[in-house]
Amino acid sequence: MRILIADDERVSRRMLHGLLTMWGYEVISVEDGNKALEELKKPDAPRVGLLDWVMPGQNGVEVCRAIRRDRPEPYTYIILLTTKDAKENVVEGLESGADDYLIKPWDPYELKARLRAGQRILQLEDRLVEARETMRFKATHDHLTGLANRGFIVDSLERELARTRRENGSTIVMLGDLDHFKSVNDTYGHPVGDEVLREVARRLLGAVRSYDLVGRYGGEEFLIVLNNCDASQALARAEEVRKGVARDPVHTAIGPLPVTMSIGVLSSRDWSQCNAEEMLRRVDAALYQAKASGRNCCQLAGPNLPCEVPSIQEK
Amino acid sequence: MVTSPSHDQQRLDRDSILERLEGNQDLLAELVELFLSEAPELIETMQKAMQSGDMLALEHSAHSMKGAAGNFSASSTVSAASQLEKDAKNRDLAAAKESLVALELAIERLMPELAGLRQEPAK
Description:
The complex is a heterodimer. Chain A is of the alpha/beta class.
């Protein structure tokens, strides 16, 4: 466990340093508030800060306020060391965001116990953050394939389109659907169907760049968003994805099964007046066309028509 | 909580200081060395601050001295430094001058006593 100590007075700083080292802590010690803040803001900063209240530069209370404002996570446990013991000072210290305080000259046994209390709080905090992140992942990802789920991939598409518009770039959107997948489930059962879906998810991820987005859009439908991609390459990129999926049969419990995918594709550049919802409708129409023209192929969305009132035009 | 000067003329208690350091004699010796080199610097800073009327610097150095001496439970030095800190905070130059003299005296007595702490006393 690493600890930052900040005290401008050398004897006190050395004493803290000496004791904490004896207790097995890894100590970083600085002599003023500005350096303390700098250390505590680093990406791999110590999780515990022991700050003297009165210091040159920013004092302990100011450092505390800055940390709470600028670095909410991961949580830094802060103990203020002070010779001030008036009640209003204690209140000010705690109000600034300090977790605890010790009056100088502090008692080493008390300090040791309070550091242990701090570590308990940090462990609790870490467990909560971890649980929250697990829940966040579960809420945004498909359990079977581990891909982004429908809600998350559509949100990501909207964000990506907004960014593309700002940067005057283009985004390629693909909607792929496994061919005759229903018969896999019907013939071999859902566990085999699930094996196929998992393997297809892996192949899709393997066919795009690490920063592209792949999501499970529906049962056997996958939405792929290629960031900042040359508009003229839309069809070629979709072909790569299609070939990546159909490359080899999928090995399942009942033996190898051939898989193919039909893909509808568009580039946001060609549909710049459209919102995400409309693009999804267009790419879905293209997918339908690909299915109609014999499956295991890619179809570019078209023609490029204005789409201000899409819902009425569709009917 | 300021004790009277006559009352706080107590000798440093090596055993209790060492207990605070969990018996680490090397650390004690090191802290004493640090204090012996830091105290004259702080006194000099205070004298300069007094001459130039920089009460903020005076307050700050007195505060540091209070913290440093507190680590050895050197009560007469702590209370003298504490008084000086208050005077400087109150911008009371006359009182601060007197307090600085008192602090210098306390330090003068403290230094040899502290120096003696470095070695284990003969039994």
